[in-house]
Amino acid sequence: QDTDEFILPTGANKTRGRFELAFFTIGGCCMTGAAFGALNGLRLGLKETQNMAWSKPRNVQILNMVTKQGALWANTLGSLALLYSAFGVIIEKTRGAEDDLNTIAAGTLTGMLYKSTGRV
Length: 120
Description:
Blueprint: H1 18-48, H2 56-95, H3 100-115
């Protein structure tokens, strides 16, 4: 069988549009940022508390670093993904075309807006 076995509504595309993929992109970036931030927080927490004995204050300090860094990275990457997705959807709707130029423009605009805030 060379035919698809999926039932699609009449006139529906077989691929997802940019707007549908935006939710996956934003959620994926938030989860990736949280995981990366948690690992970074664990590394920083262990480094900062290396002179302390294993006790409740050390554990609490490490957990604080893990949650703080996890939230920071999740917010940062989630915000960037939101900007990228919003620019991509707006550009696609404005141009009326789905091509690589939309992706390049969305990435460029996101980077320009992110850097315009003065962050390094």
